[in-house]
Fold this sequence. Notes:
By secondary structure, the chain is α+β, with helices and mostly antiparallel strands. The protein is 54% helix and 17% strand. This is histidine kinase.
Amino acid sequence: MAVRIKITLLFTTIVFLLLSLLCSSIYYFAYTRRLENIKAHLINQALTTSTLLNESNIFNQQLMNKIDSATIISMKDKTIQAYNNVNERIYTYSDFPGDTLKLSEDMLSEARMKNSIFFTAGRKEAVAFYANKNKEGIVILAAAFDEEGNRNLQHLKLILWLSFIGGTVIAFISGYIFSKILLQPVKKIADEVNIISAQSLTHRIKSGKSDDEWSYLIKTLNDLLDRLQESFEIQRRFISSAAHELSTPLTSISSQLEVSLQRNRAVEDYRLVMQSVYQDVRELTRLTQTLLEFATASGTAGGIELNLLRIDEVLMRLPAEMIKQDKAYSVKLEFDQLPEDEEQLFVFGNAELLFSAIRNVVSNACKYSHNRLAKVRLAVDETGIKVSVEDAGKGISESELKNIFHPFYRAENNRAITGFGVGLPLVKRIIKIHKGQIAVSSVVGKGTIVVISLPIARTNK
C-alpha cells in the first residue's frame, strides 16, 4: 500500500474516531437531558394530582379532569391514574378514552418503597410516584408521549449523522490532499537522488530555507553524498596509484628479461640480470604485502580477532625489529608517567595489526631522521594511552600535512627516499579499528611528531 494512502487512511481513521466520540457524546447527553425533563414534568404532574386528590372536598373528578387536560401541553397521549393503599384505581384520566395503563402489584409496591419508579410503556414514558405525605398512601401514575422532545432528538440525530458522514468525507479528501503536500518533498528528493550516479556524485539535493525535518533529511543525504564522493575519490586515487606502483617493477622485470633474451650472453651477464630481476621481485612482494595489510585494515573490528594486550610489551619489540629492518636504525624508548595500576597499560586489540601500525610510524621516523633515531614515548593518564614517535628529519610543510593520510601520497621533500606512501594511511585505518586517534605535528627542518592515542581496555566500550 502506498504511503500516501496509508497517511490518508490513518488521518481519516483518527477523525472518524473523534467524530464518533463527539457525536455519540452529544446525542447521549441530549437523550439523557430529555429523559430528565420528561421525568420532572411527570413527577410534577403526579404531585399536582396527589394534592388535588387530598382536597377531594374542593376538587371533584370532573374538575380534576379539566385541570389534567390543561397541564403539560407539550406532551401528547397523557394518562394519569391513582391507586389507593389496597391497589384499587381511584382516579383515571387520559387524552383518549379507554387509553389506560395497568400497573402490577409488584410495581406499586416498588413505587411505595422507592417513592418513584420510571419506566416506558410503548412509546410513552411513565412514572409511578408515591406521595408519602398523603393520608391514604396513594400511588400516582403519570404517563405521556414526549412529542416535542422526541422530535428535537430526531432532528439532532439527523444533524449529527450528516455532520459525521460529511466530516469523515472531508477528512478523507483533506487527508489525501494533505498527504500529497506532505510527501511532495520526499518525491522531489527521490527524483534528485535518481539523477545521482557514480559519474555524477557532485550533484547535491537542493534544500529550502526552512529549518524542518525535510531540510534535516536533505542535509543528511548531502553529507552522505559527500562521504561517498570522498570514498570514490580515495578509491580512484588508490587504484590509480596502486596500478602505477605495481607497473613500475613489472615493467622493469619485463624490460630486463626482454633485453637479455635478444641475444646469447655470458653466464655472468645472466646472473646480473637475474639479480636485478630478483630485487624488483622483492620490491613487488613488499608492495603486494603492504597492499594486503592495507586491505585487511580497511575492514572493521568485527572481522578481526581482538584480545587484551599490554602496550608496553608491544613497544618493547620495536628496537630489535628496527635493527632487523636496517642495522643503522635505532629506537629510544621512554616510558614516562606510567601508572601504578598495571591494568591501565592494557588495550583491547589485535597484537600484530597494532604492532604493524606502530612499526610503520617508527620505521618512517628512522628512515627520515638524520641520525636514523626514533624517540618513542609512552604516557598514560585519565584520558587513555598515548604513544608518541619523534624524529629529527626534514619535517613536513603545513600544506602537505592534510594529505599524508591519503594512499600513495608522499611529501615533496621525501620522494627521493624509497617507499610506497601507504604507511600512514595503513596506520590510520588500524588505529581507527582500535577506536583510537592519530595526530601529526611537524616543523620543517626540525622534525615530525606522531601521537597515537588509544583507549584503556577497561574503559573501551
